[in-house]
Specification:
Layout: H1 7-14, H2 24-44, E1 54-58, E2 64-66, H3 67-81, E3 86-91, E4 98-99, H4 103-106, E5 110-118, E6 129-137, E7 160-166, E8 170-175, E9 180-186, E10 191-196, E11 207-209, H5 220-230, E12 241-242, H6 248-258, E13 261-264, H7 277-290, E14 294-296, E15 316-319, H8 321-333
Parallel strand pairs: 3-5, 11-12, 11-13
Antiparallel strand pairs: 1-2, 3-4, 5-6, 6-7, 7-8, 8-9, 9-10, 13-15, 14-15
Helix pairs in contact: 1-2, 2-3, 5-8
The structure holds 2,5-anhydro-1,6-di-O-phosphono-D-glucitol (AHG) and manganese (II) ion (2 copies).
Length: about 350
């Protein structure tokens, strides 16, 4: 047992590496760890009881909420509210930011943005899903209630970000700006144990991940890039392999480890794509950059985008640096959007 490092131990060990180390971020990461265990437990028994399916309600973005979306949102929100480091939460499942306007909340330093259950359309069929989180220091003064501007910060201001993947095993992967570290959950002892220290993603990859069913609606540059991926060119390792699960966390996690490119471009119907900048793209972009990869909206760095609204969408290209550069070059060469 002596060489096992738990997530709790690791967080404490690393807490003085954080930019404004005071122990509060460590404590916040610990509450995320706890909520992840609770949600993991529920997801593991999703086939039992009455917890799959929808709640016959839409979120503010017009998507049908699943029971587990609502469950995960409540658990993570409660874990944040119970601590004195969080002044507010924004979530895919909440129409507006939730401000903790109590004595503790007004004096708390951080806001957290989250996608409590990512890939929820996969939950009923036992396919991996996840949770994504992103943490910023507030901009508003301590002692006041937080406000919307605390949430609308560019991604390069994140102090921490991570995800939980509820897969064939459950993992928590996070960064505080000093590399990316992965912990595998050992259910026999109820603990996340360090399994992937200082994760690096390959500079090149041979996996492309995109919902090709939307092909007809893609911009010209993306259609050409897909054909490039499929071309027979053994010297350059093509054709590439196509892999698409439909849970960003799972597709991202595989590509992070193996090398690859995840794409969710604009389409004729959705000019800004589908994925949400603040709680899907920014945290993943922070992680991939920390692992040596790249994230782009097709022309510029995701982490430099200044957001204007909570549920803002953005075209998203993320993964191995050379693959992101390549898809950007196709978009530049074929700027004509949809022909
Ligand atoms: P969510 O379940 O949080 O709404 O996210 C679903 C997202 C993302 O996880 C996934 O990569 C993408 O939607 C899949 O979209 P398509 O079904 O359009 O391919
Ligand atoms: Mn999602
Ligand atoms: Mn979700």
């Amino acid at each position: 047992m002596s060489n096992i490092r738990t997530l709790g131990e690791f967080i404490i060990e690393k807490q003085y590496d954080y930019p404004h180390a005071s122990g509060e971020l460590s404590s916040l990461l610990s509450s995320i760890r706890l909520a992840a265990k609770v949600v993991n437990c529920e997801i593991n028994k999703a086939g039992l009881g009455n917890i799959t399916g929808s709640v016959n309600k839409e979120n503010v973005q017009g998507e049908i909420q699943q029971k587990l979306d609502v469950y995960a949102n409540e658990k993570f929100k409660a874990a944040m509210a119970a601590r004195d480091q969080v002044c507010g939460v924004a979530s895919e499942e909440e129409d507006h930011e939730v401000i903790f306007d109590s004595e503790l909340g007004r004096n708390a330093k951080y806001v957290i943005l989250m996608d409590p259950l990512d890939g929820s359309s996969n939950i009923d069929v036992n396919v991996s899903v996840g949770t994504i989180f992103s943490i910023y220091q507030r901009l508003s003064p301590l002692g006041e209630a937080a406000n919307i501007h605390d949430f609308l910060q560019p991604g390069h201001k994140q102090v921490a970000a991570g995800y939980v993947i509820y897969g064939s095993s459950t993992m928590l992967v996070y960064t505080t700006g000093n590399g990316v570290h992965g912990f595998t959950y050992d259910p026999s002892i109820g603990t996340f144990c360090l399994s992937h220290e200082n994760m690096r993603t390959p500079q090149e990859g041979n996996i492309y991940s995109i919902n090709e069913g939307n092909y007809i609606k893609f911009p010209q540059g993306i259609k050409k890039y897909i054909k490039y991926c499929q071309e027979n060119n053994p010297e350059e390792g093509r054709p590439y392999t196509s892999r698409y699960i439909g849970s960003l966390v799972s597709d991202f996690h595989r590509n992070l480890l193996k090398g690859g490119l995840y794409l969710y471009p604009s389409t004729a119907a959705y000019p800004l794509g589908k994925l949400r900048l603040l709680y899907e793209c920014n945290p993943m972009a922070f992680i991939i950059e920390q692992a040596g990869g790249k994230a782009s909206d097709g022309t510029k760095r995701i982490l430099d985008i200044v957001p204007s609204e909570l549920h803002q969408r953005v075209p998203f290209f993320i993964g191995s640096t050379q693959m992101v550069i390549k898809v950007e070059s196709f978009l530049k060469e074929y700027p004509d959007p949809f022909s």
